[in-house]
Design a protein that fits this description.
By secondary structure, this protein is of the alpha+beta class. The chain contains eight helices and nine strands. The chain has two domains: 159 residues, Triger factor/SurA peptide-binding fold; 86 residues, Chitinase A, domain 3 (Roll), CATH 3.10.50. The strands form three sheets. Strands 5-4-7-6 form a four-stranded antiparallel β-sheet, with helices on both faces. Strands 2-1-9 form a three-stranded antiparallel β-sheet. The protein has a two-stranded antiparallel sheet with strand order 3-8. It is elongated.
Length: 271
Amino acid sequence: MLGLLGCGGGERIVVRIGAAAITEAEVHERISETDTDPHSRKQALESLIASEWLIGEAAARGLAVANVDVRGSGRLRAASGLAATKLRELSTRNAGSVADQQLASYYARHRQRFSTPERRVVRLSNRKTRDAAERLRRQVEAGGSLTSAAQRKVGAGLVTFQSAAGGRNPLEAMVYAAQLHVLSGPVRVGIDYDVFEVERIVPATYKTLGQVRGLVRSQVIGERERRALATFIEAWRARWTSRTDCSRGYVVQRCRQYAGPRRPEDPTSFD
């Protein structure tokens, strides 16, 4: 249990992190900078603790973040912000080295990302009721023209569909399941019923690795950086939580004494 400490003005220390300390006055100062709500003290504590962790980690790794006393809200924020930047750079500095084989493997696994989906050009007409749509279909099957029927309907006619399979609505699903030049429907779309015929199919196209090499490389590097940063932050949190002792009434998730339910934290954020 932390006690009262007469350091200078006799300020009460409520959190110790190794050799660093957070006073009650610092908590109140941080609270005054944010909106006052039932969780403001918790937010202030977690923010101050994270700042100390960042400065402590940077110092342990020989990364200079301040050449003056960092006590005081503005200087503490500036120093911890610089520490976060330097630690992020440190954790991801090897992510930019990508071999040709890694680019080719990534492209093969995500080839769909570099494609233009198949397009279908459809002649379509709709009716307000299923019975009316069924009559339209029978008329076309008996030799009528879906084209002329479509032209008599406002907003109907020739429509081009292009969508990913996972995001298709009922009409799109039927369009992509239909055979070329075969009358289909009716299918309900909102309050209408559509009858359609696929007139033309434009096959999907794929860009080669050579065409998207730069984009693939940036995506590979981005994913590697996120994984490296997440691994670093996970270890950083565990390491500094074990060094953080909090007084009763000031225990939050980042304290060693915390035993409550754990709130999910952003795996790639030092906040």
